[in-house]
Amino acid sequence: MRTTARRAGQAVKKAAKKAGRMQASPTPAEPEPLDPKAERRRRLLASNLTELAIEFRTDKWGVHKYTPHYERHLQHLRGESFTLLELGIGGYKKRRKSGASMKMWRWFFPKARIVGLDIEDKSWLTRGHIHTYLGDQTDPEVLTRIIDEQGAPLVVIDDGSHIPAHVRESFRILFPLLPDGAIYCIEDTQTSYWPAWGGQLDPRAPGTSMDLVKDLVDGLNHEEFLLEGYEPTYTDQWVRAVHCYHNLVIIEKGDNREGTNRDNVAHELYGASELPDDSDGSADA
Fold this sequence. Notes:
alpha/beta, seven-stranded mixed β-sheet, 10 helices
């Protein structure tokens, strides 16, 4: 009986195999190697701004520590289509290193138009999302032409000459042309304190980049001024926030006309507090 059963089983297996119902287990196919370009693109698009700065060797991380601040203020734009304008492209000694920060911005903002302005020809960098212009950062004509051709930038990065007079003039020209919600960034504000760069030894000296920034901070509270006949400036009304970091200032554009209760409370101190007695001369006049 066992022999007969064994033979019957063998006959069934033979028939099943013949019918193709008993196939050998297929050997797993080896995964296809990833395309190096596709893998690099995937890696760069997933990188944070500091990782991109290291990848493209821009001094926005390393010499400076700007990238964490930029990411905090610009992360919300990463998937948006807009124009970013950077004043100053850099890389004057080695062509291969030129445009490092523009390449960083190009991968952090894959849908954005990245525009650079420099006093030296960098046209060989123009490709895809990157566009370059030759000109001076204080030239109204070239700045207006950029906006006409590329659209008003939602982000401006001033990494140009760092000479305070140039920084102030670029801001004066560009800021009124920016849309509501724009972000204007000024790098390397330490030159405000360096005479060789057009700055001043006295931190309170007028005419420096940081003097401009301090005026903007005061302007945030322009509705509280008690100066008779004071007329709010454009920046008083349209600078919504000023963020100051080590050598970096980030300015937000927006409506700064919130209203005030100045007329009701500014002329009489109320509550239990008393003004300090400065009769000993310790307080400033």
